[in-house]
Amino acid sequence: MTHWFHRNPLKATAPVSFNYYGMVTGPSASKMCNDLRSSRARLLELFTDLSCNPEMMKNAADLYFSLLQGFINSLDESTQESKLRYIQNFKWTDTLQGQVPSITEDEAKEVHRSLKIAAGIFKHLKESHIPKLITPAEKGRDLEARLIETYIIQCQAEAQEVTIARAIELKHAPGLIAALAYETANFYQKADHTLSSLEPAYSAKWRKYLHLKMCFYTAYAYCYHGQTLLASDKCGEAIRSLQEAEKLYAKAETLCKEYGETKGPGPTVKPSGHLFFRKLGSLVKNTLEKCQRENGFIYFQKIPTEAPQLELKANYGLVEPVPFEFPPKSAHWTPETLAAFDLTKRPKDDNAKPKPEEEVKPVKEPDIKPQKDTGCSIS
Fold first, then answer.
1. Which of 26, 180, 294, 301 is the most buried (most CB within 10 A)?
2. Distance CA 344, CA 321 (A)
3. For range 4-25, the mean pLDDT
4. How far apart are CA 199 and CA 188, in angstroms?
């Protein structure tokens, strides 16, 4: 499948050995460290494993985070932090600074569900964990509020794209499709605005993608709104709505080209090469010609100078993040295991000697070759 959704590079992370020489004073603590090391390694392997499915990813993530919980929260389920909370630093690269063309119904549902879960994870981190960081996130870094909020909104918008494709395939009412497209365009506009105060050198490519998607789905909204107006015998207004769709589609085509020429993080996707993109151009053209013919033979209505104001509200299909909670703490975390970590034997940091900056190698992402684009068929 050719790419449809823009993605920033996968975050890379520095190796973590979970070796706490001197502090580990018993076999249960030693086993916990070994399990953490192996489960983390397995989770990272799956990020680039093309055979990985959502269930495999969830099981691996649940295992690792259930073990990691003992480093975060106290064993008595109180609000107190674990005594091990600050013994391990983790280092990750930043995504900025450092697809749904033809799929089966089951795959579409999985994409839709995964994006809602992703939005829920970002929302959970934003509300429950990022505020607890000792050092606030620097401007433009991944844990900074603007970036986290953009990821939440983009996940919602892309999940809604699947809903729109499904509604088109099932030939739902044009009014519903127009409303969903308008709501999706608003999501992309909001995401773009959230990034607007970031340094353009880092955010220009991402923002160009968000902007082109906003124009594309606004064009969709005007196109299907035009069909609704025609069905209500408002042919003049329908023509003006279709003319606006035509203008926005042309703008989206231009933005696709600009996006491809803009330097920035992440692989460059090619939305304008998708049948799903091209079909809108044909739909707008054919619907506009139909409206113009009928107005010339039947309605004889004046075409408004201004495009109709879109005040569309979808009452079905809107996406909300799926609430997320970390898995329960592993049963291997017992008072005896925790007691086997002796923090009094932790090596003292030598702050007088500056430490060299540790390099984090980028993740080598799999090269997914585009497959034949047979259109957006998800039923």
1. 180
2. 43
3. 83
4. 19
